[in-house]
Structure formats: C-alpha cells, structure tokens
Amino acid sequence: MNTQAGTVTPMMAQYLEIKAAHGDALLFYRMGDFYEMFFDDAVAAAEALDIALTKRGKHMGQDIAMCGVPVHAAESYLLTLIRKGFRVAIAEQLEDPAEAKKRGSKSVVKRDVVRLVTPGTLTEESLLDARRHNFLAAFSELREDCALAWVDISTGALSVLGCERLALGPELARLTPRELLVEDSMEQALGEVTEGFDLSVTPLHRGAFDSAGGAKRLAALWQVASLDAFGSFSRAEISAMAALVEYLELTQKGKLPLLRPPQQEARMSAMRIDAATRRSLELTHAMGGGRDGSLLHAIDRTVTAGGARLLERRVASPSCNLDTISARQETVAHLVGEDRLREDLRRHLRGAHDLDRALSRLALDRGGPRDMAAIRATLDVADEIGALAEGRDLPAPLAEAVRDLSGHAALHELLDQALVAEPPLLARDGGFVASGYDEELDEARRLRDEGRGVIAGMQAEYAAETGIQSLKIKHNNVLGYFIETTATHAAKMLAPPHSERFIHRQTTANQVRFTTVELNEIETRILNAGGHALELEKRVFDRLKGSILDAAGPLGQLARALSEIDLACGLADLARGADWCRPRLDDSRAFHVEAGRHPVVEQALRRAGESFVGNDCDLGDAPLWLLTGPNMAGKSTFLRQNALIAVLAQIGSFVPAAAAHIGIVSQIFSRVGASDDLARGRSTFMVEMVETAAILNQADDRALVILDEIGRGTATYDGLSIAWAVLEHLHEVNRCRGIFATHYHEMTQLAAKLDGVATATVAVREWQGEVIFLHEVRRGTADRSYGVQVARLAGLPASVVDRARVVLQALEQGESEGPGRGARQALIDDLPLFAAVPPAPQPGPAAASPVEERLRGVQPDELSPREALELLYELRGLLPSASS
Which residue numbers delimit the DNA mismatch repair proteins mutS family domain (predicted)? Predict the structure, then answer.
C-alpha cells in the first residue's frame, strides 16, 4: 500500500500503521461488532471467503476496497483462511469508545494486534480436530548438528529430536506438522524436502535460532537454573526449541501457552517409516485423503480426545524398545481378560473432557467458565476411576496411571463450590458463580434482582395511577429506564395532575416516553448493582484460573494418565471383539505369523458379511519370500498385512492373527502400488526406481521390506534384470526380512541359488474357463499369471480377450521352441491380423448336470443326519468319474 500521498482519516491512518507492521498477514481490524479488512486484504479475503466486496471512502483518489465478517462468527472464517494458506493478524479495540471520546470527538479508539493466527498456532476448539494434534515444528542446522523440535500449543506438549537433514522428510511424514519454522537463509535449500507436505513454511531471522540466548530464555520460561534439569540437549536442539518459543511470543503477543518441559526423543527409539511407506500402508490417512480407510481409523476404539491423539502418535511412531512394548502389552492383556473392568472404565472415560486443551485456552486467556466446568467434570471421572481400581491387582503401567489420577481434592472441591452446574461460554456473560460462594457477589445479585422486581412494581403502580394499563417501563442503552405509552394516552400524562410527576423524555412516531425522579434513582442503583456483580464474577474467574494454572503440572499428568487408560481399554476392546492375539516380541530376526489378516480389509469384509482368509508368513529360515500369483488374487493385501502386523505389535497392541512371533523391526519400507509425480517430471517408473533406491540405500538387517512388481514400468527384460538385481542386493547386502511380489516367473530360479530366498504363491483354481481366487498363500510358485482371465473379469470386450489368448499361445509356443528377438519377430509376423479373427461364438447355456438336477429337489433343513449321508453317497455316484 502506498501511504506517501493523500489525506487519510485518523481511523484509516491507524489502520495503515498497524498493517505496515504486519504486511505478510491479512489484518482483521475490529470495528464494533465486525472485523473489517481494507485495500488488497479485502480483495483477497472476499475471494477466499466468498463474501461481498464493497468500498468505503477514498485513498489517494481511489476507492478503498472493504469487506468484513461478524465478530461472533469469526472463527469459521478464520478456519477457511488458514486452510487456504493465509495468516491473520487480529487487531482488537483496546479501550472503551467512551474513553476515546473524552480525548475529543475525532479521537480514534486505541487498537493493536493482540494475536497472529497461523496454521501451527491454533487453540480454538472449533478450529481444531479434537482427535488429532496440531503441531508447530522448527528445524535448526548448526553445521553438522541438526535438530527438529515440535509443539502442540493446544496441549502444551513439546518434544525435540536430533535430526539430520536427510531424516527431515521422514520425520515430517511422521509428525505431519501444520507449520515449519526455518532460518530464512535455509528456506530455499529445504524446499525440495518440504515439497509435497501439507504444511506452511515460515522463515525466521537468524537470531531466533541463537542457541546461547535461547538456552537462557528456555531456562527462564521453565524457571530453572539450567536446561540440564530436563536432559542433555545439543546446541541444535536448544536452537530449535528457542525458535519455537520466540515465534510463540511473536504470534501470541507475549502470552505464552502453557508449555510443558521438553521431552527429548532418542534416535532410533522408534520404527523408521518414510513418507512413501506411510502413504502405501495408509497408517494414519487413506490414499484418498481423510482417516476413513486407514489403519488408525480401523483400530480406533478410544472414547476421549486425548486417547485418540495418543493412539495417532503411537501408530505414527511404533516403539523399538522391548521393555516399553512389553509394558503396554501387559496392560492391554490384563484388560482383555477383565471384561467388566474394561467396560466400567470406558463408561467413566466417556465423561472426561479434553483437559489439555482446556488448560491451554485458560493459560492464553482464551478460556471461559465452560473450560473450568470441563476440568471439574474430568476430576469427577478421575475420582470414579480411582475408586473403581482401588484394591485391584493391576499391571504396573496401569497402576501408575491410576496413581496419577489422585491428589486434586482441594481443586476439585473449589470448582464444585464455585461453579454452577451449567455455566455460560464466556466469563463476561456472568451467571457462572454458584450462589453461596462469595457473600459480596450474592449481595450485589440480590440488589440487582430485587431492582428488577421494583421496576415491575413501579410499572404496576404507574399503570394504576394513570389508568393506562398498556403503560410499560422499558430500557435501552441510550435512555436507560423509561416509561413508554402510546401517543393516544400521552396527552393524559402531559396534563395535570400527572404532568407534575411524569417528565417527558422523547417522542417517536407511535410512542411517547417519560421518566420520574424515583425511576432515575432506582435505575442508578440497579445499573451499579448489575455492573458490580459482573465485576465480582470476573474477579472470581481470575482467582479460579490462577488456582487451576497453579496445578497445571499435576493436571497434565492426570490428562496423560486418562489417555493411557483410554488407549489400553480401546486396544483391549478391539482385541476382544476382533479375535486378535498377543504377539511375542524379542530381539531375534524372527517373523512368524499364523493365519494373519489385514485389519482394514477384514473390517470392510465383515461389514459386507464376508470373511477374510488368513495366511501364514514365516521369514525365519528364509528371510526373503518371492511371491508369485495373478493380479487380484491378494498379493498386495498379503504384503501390506504383514507390515501392518509389525506396526501393531510394536505399538503394544494385539494383532490380527492366530499367533505371531516377531523380532523387533527397526524400519519398514513399502513399494506397493503405482503412481507418478508429474509436477516434478517423474514418470511412474522413475518414482518406483527412486523409492527402490531409497530402500536399498537405507534398509538394515532389522528392516522389513515389502516390494510389489519392481521393474514393471519398462521393457520386459530390462524390468526382469532390475528386479533380479534388487532381490540379490536385499539378500546379500541389506540382509533384511522381506516379501518380493513379482510376475517375472524366471526369478523363482533364485530360490535355488540363494539360501535366504523361498518361493510362495497365491493359489487360484480354474473352473469352466473361469478363474477362482482362493486368497491362500502357499509355498511354491505359480505356473502362470492368468492376466488374460483377469482382463476378461475387468470387462474387456470378448473379441479382445480371445485375440489376447491367440497371441499369448503363439508367444508361449515360440518361447519354448527358441526364445530370442528374431524368433519372437517371426511369430509376430505370422500372427493373423486382429480384424481377421472371427468373433467367438457366444456360449449357450450349459446343460444341467445330474448332480445339479438332483440337488434342486433337496431341502437341506428337512434332512436327518443319516439322510444327508445317504444323499452324499448318491451324489457321488452321479459324478461321471465316480466308481460304481
């Protein structure tokens, strides 16, 4: 905006001054009951929000574009703007307009930005998904020392991890932050890493990442002499955390959220899963977007928001620590065997509120009485669960969580006494403090309420005195209390004797308004009492908020304990209802699964009334399986289900199998499914090769690798040679566990050459030209791919299918007689043209067999066991190949 020339009003001058300090954000400028936007901000906001664009006055001879949104509905508009990539600066009125008028009629109400709203700094309940975290992250690189820190300001959870630049992509895929802070000089260099993630990259000046000053700032924040109280942090880790805090001070205008002490994550403490694998396995999001269809959605039985967020963190980051996994399993196993306890716990947990986010809103002065009521209700739940668990022999993790629920009796009693049962949303509305809690407040309320009764009595008195039954005493913000009657009756009140008492105030089109000395006096008393009562309630609110925030640390522990209990109950409920087993985990390289199932596919089949065929997978003696079989037979499902079983086992869950023994999996890599990346100039085959290269360069001997159809995007022999070399590399160099699905049957020869490779196939049957998929994985190899049959099932015209059969038969015959390019070319030259192939005659209806004719007259429900056995022998005799 050019502000150098032209005359502007004082209000517009104030707007331009505030806007100049926040040029990268849309400015919500408070004007009474609206937030208004001007100039380019108005044009951009009107288009993004699909609202009317109007104009207001002129600046430098040009119309000033303007649009606005109501203050009471601002949150929904904010959400739309944030999702579309905007940042919003909110400028509020910092004084009462009446105060501004005292400085002169043309004085402008003081305004300033009180908050900068960005994707990573949301706290409002309506702007957040209660069951997901909203992370703000910061990446710091100090020479060879790099780190990533992240915080959810709606819960106060802060974590940090040493993270080299190469690992930044996988970590962003794991955390899915909404906003990433980087040093401004690094923004361009990190562009390729951050590309493809749904996040906003915000550059900060170099000083924000200063580790020396940052250490002092962080120590002051948590009121400790040194950060050593929380762990041994590298300079880069301190730098990343310091950048987070400085950004929060900037966006929250000095009001820091309730940040908990940092949790330092150890490297390699969690299973490493890159972005491509997360997409392929659909861990937390389905391919089409959203949670529905993902593993997270399929297994989420939690009943609290905190429990749901904890489950998402566990699924995104399975543990590699055996002790941690065993402790979680022990808790789930105990609750699987305690049906009554589990159901009682879940019933009580349904009454718990989102304690973390209520605390955060109160700390940022965005909370209200309902947040306090939510904390009170959650303390009720904690007491109920504590009483339920009393005297029980619980596993150590569950017992520890129950202990963290206690110790809040004083705060609980305070909130019980101070708050009404159903408080209003906002403190300024009043009416949230219970009667009997504050004597001075009760007295002010009595005066206020009795004043209302006095007004009603005065109205009845004046009506009787004047004989005007329609006379009313009303109130507005301009006149205060006044007596109102119709113009017809006004003459009576203006005439003696009433004119001596009733003083004329205002005449409107249809009404005449009066007042009296007594009415003016009672108005003063009532107005003072009501305002005094609101002021006293505000003081009570501040005292209660202080008491709550003083207990923020223990309340945070209580919130985490409820989330742990909820998650354990949810996983136990899932295991019990879906017939899952407890897996055995150890430090070996075992991977033995009996009758394993895909948790998402099984759930979908169950809804359709169908059952899932379980399959074994044993990568013990031969850690690499070469899997063959036709398309649509279930190879991809088998690949993914074993990877998902490993993920479930290492979050501490039971798994969908009859039995499972799994040695800790350090990494999972998945290359299943075809996709391209046209925006970056990559074909499907190029994407496949890039992802395969990442696997071969990173997989260690504890990794689990699942690969599907490597090499299919190029010529047959090129693809076969690449697939062959990849399998050899996995066997000889990576020495990992894995399943390699392929249509290159020539590769099955590797099983005879490599000790660690075994063959398996997905079984099918042919019946009267039809392919029947059995969905059973067996040891051995497929004799062919059944591609032509699958093409027919897909709906290709019959003439195309028949032509394909002719070509396939000729090529297979030629290959057996003498493979080679010249032989194949001769075959192709000898094949008849497509147009010369007569269309296949449509098959008529098959004649019913004697067995079918006999079965049509049988009523199974009416047969006795002996009759059924006799019928079976009879049917066997009707078969053409049966002996007499």
Answer: 703-719
CATH classification of the domain holding 318 = 1.10.1420.10
**Strands (E) located in 653-713:** 659-663, 667-671, 704-708
DSSP 414: H
- The first and second tokens of residue 384, run together, are 């109920």
Q: Name the nearest CA neighbour of 262 among 239, 237, 240, 230.
A: 230
Q: What is the rounded distance in angstroms from the CA atom of residue 194 to the CA atom of residue 750?
A: 40
Residue 697 marked as a ligand binder: no
631: annotated binding-site residue? yes
pLDDT digits (tens, 9 = 90+) for 788-815: 666 666 677 877 767 777 776 776 666 6
Residue with tokens 């490993």: 646
- The per-residue b/e assignment along 303-325, b for 16 or more CB within 10 angstroms, e otherwise, is bbbbbbbbbbbbbbbbbbeeeeb
* Residue located via tokens 């699905």: 741
On whether residue 198 sits in a domain, the answer given is yes
What is the dihedral sign for C-alpha 778, 784, 787, 789? Answer: negative
- Give the domain extent around 141: 125-267
C-alpha–C-alpha distance, residues 137 and 240, integer Å: 8
In this structure, are residues 229 and 220 in contact, taking their beta carbons and an 8 Å threshold?
Answer: no
Domain co-membership, 233 together with 320: no
Range list of H helices, 50-96: 74-83
CA distances from 775 to 233, 595, 785 (A): 51, 12, 14
Residue 784 falls inside a structural domain: yes
| DSSP states of 590-613 | -EEEEEE--HHHHHHHHHTT----
Q: Is 321 annotated as a binding residue?
A: no
480 in a known ligand binding site: no
> Which pLDDT tens digit goes with each residue over 391-446?
999 999 999 999 999 999 999 999 999 999 999 988 988 899 999 999 999 988 88
- Could you tell me how many residues make up the chain? 884
What pLDDT is attached to residue 273? 94
Residue 31, classed as helix, strand or coil, is strand
Q: Nearest 5°: CA angle at 268, between 583 and 726? A: 80
Q: What's the CA gap between 429 and 530, in Å, rounded?
A: 11
E strand or H helix that includes residue 873: helix 865-878
Strand order in the sheet with 179-183: 200-204, 179-183, 136-142, 145-152, 157-162, 263-265
Chain segment 610-622, per-residue pLDDT in tens: 999 999 999 988 9
Asked whether residue 706 is assigned to any structural domain, the reply reads yes
Say yes or no: 643 and 754 in one domain.
yes
The answer to whether 609 is annotated as binding is: no
- Strand, helix or coil for residue 531: helix
Closest CA to 853 of 831, 874, 826: 874
Is-contact 38 15, C-beta < 8 A? yes
Q: Are residues 653 and 752 in the same domain?
A: yes
Laid out side by side, the sheet with 34-38 consists of 54-59, 62-70, 34-38, 26-31, 88-93, 111-117
Same domain flag for 752 and 832: no
**Does one domain contain both 362 and 500?**
no
Annotated binding residue 734: no
Distance CA 192, CA 208 (A): 23
Whether residue 2 lies inside any domain: the answer is no
Contacts by residues 22-26 (CB-CB < 8 Å, ≥ 24 positions apart): 22/89, 22/113, 22/116, 24/87, 25/86, 25/87, 25/88, 25/89, 25/116, 26/81, 26/86, 26/87, 26/88, 26/89
CATH number of the domain within which 50 lies: 3.40.1170.10
What is d(CA 392, CA 388) in angstroms, rounded to the nearest whole number? 8
Report the C-alpha gap between 696 and 750 in whole angstroms.
18
Q: Are 697 and 811 in a shared domain?
A: no
**636 among annotated binding-site residues:** yes
Choose the final residue of a domain: 225, 252, 267.
Answer: 267
Please tell me whether residues 686 and 770 are part of one structural domain.
Answer: yes
The answer to whether 162 is a known ligand-binding residue is no
The strands making up 591-596's β-sheet, listed across from edge to edge, are 584-586, 659-663, 591-596, 615-618
